[in-house]
Amino acid sequence: MPDSALLLLRDVFGHAEFRGGQEAIINHVAAGGDALVLMPTGGGKSLCYQLPALLRMGTAIVVSPLIALMQDQVDALRQLGVRATFLNSTLSAPDALEVEQALLAGDLDLLYVAPERLLTPRFLALLDQLSDQSRIALFAIDEAHCVSQWGHDFRPEYRQLTVLHERWPQVPRIALTATADAPTQREIAERLQLEGARHFISSFDRPNIRYAVEAKDGGLRQLMEVIDRHRGASGIVYCLSRRKVEATADALREQGIDALPYHAGLDAEVRAEHQRRFLREDGVVMVATIAFGMGIDKPDVRFVAHMDLPKSMEGYYQETGRAGRDGEPSEAWLCFGMGDAALLRQMIENSDAPDERKRVEHRKLDALLGYCESTACRRQSLLAYFGETYPQPCGNCDNCLSPVASIDGTEIARKALSCVYRTGQRFGAGHVIDVLRGSDNARVRQFGHDTLSTYGIGRDLDARQWRSVFRQLLATGLLESDLDGHGSLRLGASSTPLLRGETTLSLRMDPARKAARRERGKRDGAATPAMLDDDAQRRFDALRAWRGDSARSQNLPAYVIFHDATLREIAVNAPTDLDALAQINGVGAAKLARYGDALLEVLSTAA
What we know:
The chain is of the alpha/beta class. 46% of the residues lie in helices and 13% in strands.
């Protein structure tokens, strides 16, 4: 069977070798074993059930939470010559009946279905008919973290997927996710009755992604600096509110960026059209709430930008993982401020969740704040959250590339805490900073705060540096923000030992910001794919143009035909015949037969 798996990998998928732990997973599932697979986004999870589906007799049933994801997966598999389709609410009754008949006739290798459809009596009866003839190859449960009530993508229907094991215990199951800390892994195994399954946990590391975190300081200008580093590339910009999504998309369009908004308040047809454009066109920037993204397979997203603080490390990891699925250099950039944390805490407290869940969500937010304010390697901090030790600083994050000074901030913190206390613990950071810096303004005088002992004791730091101090004090719990929306600060329970001189505190001290001069298209130091020489670039541009025309003629996303990485390899190697073209990574037998002559013609014309 291992030889058969490698042969199919080459002939169908066009790859000469497996990546990471793929081979062990595929052999285990193909032999009939259950598996729980944790693998980073872009790590090749889909292959871990697609290839066993071709090795085993019958049809693989793939449970997938999103219609868009099903469509993309099916389009890609059909391009490879695999008999795949989906069954969901987009199909008419006659089309759905045709899919059911193909399933019963044994004409499908893979069938994608939403959990809601799978759980209907009609579909379960279809599976009973297949099972009677031993023609269910396997069950694949994609995005398995949706089973966790503590997760960011909870889908209650996933809890009912235990029916798969209960009714068809002889059929192997594979559950897959890119996002699960240790408690979530245990919950997935328990909720899906996979306690006896073999666990395959790959590294959560995405070495091609460069991580960076900045304090908000003119957010749109900061975002444009990110976009300019990736001018003409596709990207995703996440915002916390619908209003900010709309405002940011409008502002980007005014700057000449092809930006589209996406949030749950838009008409369903508008959302679908914007998603279609993002998937099928080059250079579109999607500005969205977290309603957008799960299951997005677009491989050439060069940057993911967060204009506000995400809700958790899991959400942050999942969202940043949508960058660079093709393995090419990409950027994950986060911009946050003190107000973000206060707003998220307010949202947690105002939710209908039970107190236990609220406590969990507060802890998750605390972990994310600690990550943002850390002076350590971002990659080490991120992977540590998921229980993985990264051996050395990565050299590919902001803290590694531009180390930030860490100082003994005990006295600075005492000044800040004392000023919060003496102003009555009822003002926000802006006013407290004005008092610390000795600002002579009407509001300070109105409350008599120019007479306090803490007035002017912080003149040695500028306002931006003080904002960094207050963010860190909030992140460590030394200060707390009220949850009634007013943003006033009060002393945290852990502040007393520091004020008494019983503990010390280390703070990161961001340097004063230098004025940044934007230069469109300038990419110095940016995480971008390697440059091609002039001849290869000419071939690459011609290949991309051909791919775009081919995609439009078939109404498909361009990357379904070939990834940029494959076109880049073709452009560099310039194969002159079909045998040489067949050696390119990503060119399998079906694609060679379908596109080989056209590719060679494009190369000949571009020579």
